[in-house]
Write a structure and sequence with these properties.
By secondary structure, the chain is mainly α. The chain has six helices and no strands. The protein is flat. It starts with a helix and ends with a helix. About 25% of the residues are buried. The mean pLDDT is about 90.
């Protein structure tokens, strides 16, 4: 296959994935929360959208960084599926619905991908694991895993809600320390 064929496949996959997400929303609206078609499309079409839209955007030069972060969104989507399914399965106060089972992981992964896109635009870091920005990537991955752990402790285990702001403060302080160290190493 040549490069043009891959571009065409990525564009077709992007359109099909977005159409599938819309079809999942319609299936849940028409068939209710137990819609098998909605669940299938709702779980797999965001995965396809992250990959195909990301690959299509990463191919060009204008939106390359956004495309790379959407491609990385495939991993964030998997992490969000595991994290939110753990929370929803054990938390009595969070009902399993299309929004919590399908929507929360997709929106979480999209939010993380857009956050990393913004970080790359602001800092100019490449965020490759074997680079200086890779430490930030690893720290943000750990912060996301920690956030799911805090959500699980608060929602499923019934621990105090004060864990959430305490964790947010610790994560912000850790980011500030990283930023300060990066600035001091750039100056020297």
């Amino acid at each position: 296959m040549d490069a043009g064929t891959f571009r065409a496949l990525h564009r077709y996959g992007a359109v099909a994935s977005v159409a599938g997400i819309i079809a999942a929303a319609v299936a849940f609206a028409v068939g209710g929360a137990d819609s098998a078609v909605g669940l299938y499309l709702g779980l797999f079409c965001p995965l396809g959208a992250f990959y195909f839209v990301g690959a299509d955007l990463a191919d060009g030069s204008t939106y390359r960084v956004l495309g790379e972060e959407l491609l990385r969104g495939v991993a964030w989507y998997f992490l969000a599926l595991v994290g939110w399914s753990s929370v929803v399965a054990d938390a009595e106060g969070v009902a399993a619905s299309p929004l919590t089972v399908v929507g929360l992981p997709a929106f979480t992964a999209l939010g993380v991908a857009l956050l990393l896109f913004a970080v790359r635009r602001v800092t100019g870091l490449d965020l490759r694991v074997a680079s200086d920005g890779g430490r930030l990537l690893v720290a943000l991955t750990g912060a996301l895993v920690g956030a799911f752990a805090v959500a699980y402790l608060v929602l499923a285990e019934g621990r105090t809600v004060l864990l959430a702001p305490a964790y947010a403060l610790i994560a912000a302080l850790s980011l500030a320390v990283w930023w300060r160290r990066r600035a001091s190493s750039d100056a020297s």
